[in-house]
Design goal:
The chain has 362 residues and is mainly alpha-helical. Helices cover 63% and strands 4% of the residues. The chain is built from 17 helices and 4 strands. The N and C termini lie far apart (51 Å).
Length: 362
């Protein structure tokens, strides 16, 4: 099926995703158990190998190099857990939940908490004002009303260097680790929080014990715990924080008011297909091919490229599809600080100040 841009603008843009989903071949839903388990075992082996290496490597420069690899491997395991949370990795719900919980342990993610926020809020209401909480924009008026401390935090978290801080603060801590969960999911979320705290405790006991056995000093043991648990988590947060940013924040990605929001606008135009080198896909499992994942969460990660090709063939030009470049990420973080929902435009802090002064003068 092929749809022209004109017909897309008049018939498909206002509404549902039915036409997009109908254009997807049945093959994009094929998820044999052996393939999902293969990716899980491969990434788990890489993770365990890096942990072993970090026990014996203590030089700061060498540790930082290993932490770059650890960031990619922990992110890969997280994406496997993410796929399992969507029910896309396996046909068995039980296997999805079991492997998902295990795969999310190195990234210290609460499986049920992630499902509540990601599956039940972010995906159904992508780029919708007041609902989607993932990199939700602040308006110029809201920013102007902030105290100096909150403004400082906003400036840091919305900078190119602040993606990890944003992810840890706004997503991991606020949305998963603290706060009273909704009653419907409270038991499961509290259980999975306990699992994460138990994992943290077990890792600290295990590697502190290894440090004692190796004759490390107190500071040596602290450094060992930091390089096997703390630094991998921070490195992961920066990797995933930046990835989520480029998925949904750019000058050509619009956020919508409730009255203007549609599923088509949200899932076809509210995210991206970003082309990256094969080595990145080896670790990050095609997560940058994000539009088909938002169109239908049931598509397993290794079928996303096939699904993206089918969507492009059926809806040519409807999707933001481009090469991912570091300089683009940096320029986007500089251009996209605040958002004017009335005009549907991103603003820098300086532009927002000028806009407010002009509004007062009028």
């Amino acid at each position: 099926m092929s749809v022209s841009n004109d017909s897309l603008a008049t018939s498909e843009r206002p509404g549902s995703l039915k036409g997009v989903i109908d254009a997807l071949p049945d093959s994009v839903y094929d998820n044999p158990t052996w393939r999902g388990m293969g990716y899980f075992y491969r990434d788990a082996a890489l993770y365990l190998g890096l942990l072993a290496a970090l026990v014996f490597v203590t030089n700061v420069a060498e540790v930082l190099l290993l932490e770059v690899l650890m960031a990619l491997v922990v992110s890969g395991l997280f994406i496997i857990g993410h796929d399992a949370a969507h029910g896309a990795l396996f046909s068995s719900k039980r296997r999805n939940h079991t492997i998902g919980r295990i795969a999310m342990l190195p990234s210290l993610h609460v499986f049920e908490g992630w499902m509540m926020g990601h599956n039940r809020v972010h995906h159904p209401f992508t780029v919708r004002q007041g609902v989607d909480f993932v990199w939700h924009p602040t308006t110029p008026q809201q920013f102007a009303e902030m105290g100096w401390w909150r403004k400082l935090i906003h400036r840091w978290e919305w900078s190119w260097a602040g993606a990890g801080a944003y992810y840890i603060h706004q997503i991991w801590w606020k949305k998963m680790m603290v706060g009273a969960p909704p009653a419907r999911w409270a038991t499961q979320i509290r259980r999975d929080r306990a699992l994460i705290w138990g994992f943290i405790g077990a890792m600290l006991v295990l590697f502190s014990g290894i440090g004692v056995a190796l004759g490390d000093s107190i500071w040596g043991i602290v450094w060992l715990d930091a390089r096997v648990l703390v630094l991998p988590f921070i490195a992961f947060a920066y990797t995933i924080g930046a990835a989520v940013h480029v998925h949904h924040i750019a000058p050509d990605i619009r956020w919508w008011k409730k009255a203007e929001w549609t599923k088509f606008r949200a899932q076809m135009e509210g995210t991206t297909v970003l082309r990256v080198p094969k080595v990145i896909n080896f670790f990050l499992h095609w997560i940058m091919v994000h539009v088909p994942h938002h169109v239908d969460m049931r598509i397993p990660m290794y079928r996303l490229e096939e699904a993206a090709d089918a969507i492009e063939a059926a809806f040519p030009g409807a999707v933001i599809d481009k090469k991912l470049r570091l300089r683009d990420y940096v320029s986007q973080t500089r251009a996209c600080k605040l958002y004017d929902f009335d005009e549907g435009t991103w603003l820098t802090y300086a532009q927002a100040r000028r806009q407010q002064r002009a509004s007062k003068a009028a």
